[in-house]
Write a structure and sequence with these properties.
One of its GO terms (cellular component) is cytosol. GO terms for molecular function: uridine phosphorylase activity. The chain has two domains: 140 residues, Rossmann fold (3-Layer(aba) Sandwich); 161 residues, Nucleoside phosphorylase domain (Rossmann fold, 3-Layer(aba) Sandwich). The protein contains eight helices and 15 strands. Helix 4 runs parallel beside helix 7. With 339 residues, the chain is an alpha/beta fold. Strands 7-12-11-8-13 form a five-stranded mixed β-barrel, surrounded by four helices. The structure holds the ligand O=P(O)(O)O[C@@H]1C[C@H](O)[C@@H](CO)O1 and uracil (URA). Uracil binds next to strand 7 and strand 12. The ligand O=P(O)(O)O[C@@H]1C[C@H](O)[C@@H](CO)O1 binds next to strand 7.
Length: 339
Amino acid sequence: MSVSDEELDEYPDGSVKLRNPHIELMDQDILYHLALGSGSHDLVEMFRDVKFVCMGGTPRRMEMFAYYIMKEIGYKLPTGTTLMDISQYSYRYSMFKVGPVLSISHGMGTPSIGILLHETIKLMYHSKAKDPIFFRLGTCGGLGVEPGTVVISDDAIDGLGNHSYSVPILGKVVQRPCKFDKKLTRELKALADPEDPYETTLGTTMCADDFYEGQGRCDGAFCDYSEADKLEYLEGLMKSGVKNIEMESVPFAALTNHAGIKAAVICVALLNRLKGDQVCTPKEVLNEYQLRPQILVARYIKKYLQTKGRLSSFEGHGSICVKSPRRFKLVQQESQTFE
Ligand SMILES: O=P(O)(O)O[C@@H]1C[C@H](O)[C@@H](CO)O1
Ligand SMILES: O=c1cc[nH]c(=O)[nH]1
């Protein structure tokens, strides 16, 4: 039996329920693109304490985020070890775990993040994690905002303006609504510091299936419209409330909502698309921009852990996946549950 919307609301213990009756009938579930499996790994032992699942495009960004959040929440690596990429043998995605935080790269575009969301939602189910919150820490093109502005998505639309994720399933298009948790987006916005040297704003995010023509750029290999057509289109989007354009928010909002998981998308604008198409900002500046969504999410995670009395209490506690000089190991020490 599949789980309905009403039934999803009825699981007060916070565990993730799957809307797929087949999974529990299977002997084991291989999470192929994560290089993990319910038969080959003790997923409960490895991931039960996960509370925050943070995703972003590149392996490098998500590894850096893992080290950054480790510092922010006061986690210490055992001497002589580095963080381990748990999914390294998938050669697809990278995954790092620091106590209650999972940091995973999702690649580019809706098919890539869609596959990762299926497997990560199942991972949360198998591991019996409670009420995990999902974040996407991304980059985007802004509409009428200064480069470096942080945009928290309060809605997501596809390239045709649909507020839903359309997937052809068994030859028919199935539409799943895009919904973000309003309280979570409000809480994130409230964590923007007036002293931050950049704006943090809420807005609708357009999720394109392409970086070039799909986002109305004139600098792709092909272009059959004029600069004036492009500007008319982008200004129309802006007037309808669209603040930024990226490539993953629609499946992120729709699949987390379908699974009953709270989620938010926070992206930094690399450029103002009303002023150009090419990303010509220097690399060092782009690297600093990428930190901005991470800073906001770190504030949220720290505040959450503080409320639970868990901040800076990680030395010698919790779980961490580390690469020691000679072998990989999951260090499990008195694992904690975050509820
Ligand atoms: O999280 P990232 O920075 O990868 O998000 C955007 C959307 C596409 O994946 C990519 C295009 O450059 O950047
Ligand atoms: O313009 C941009 C910049 C980053 N990512 C996008 O998808 N678009």
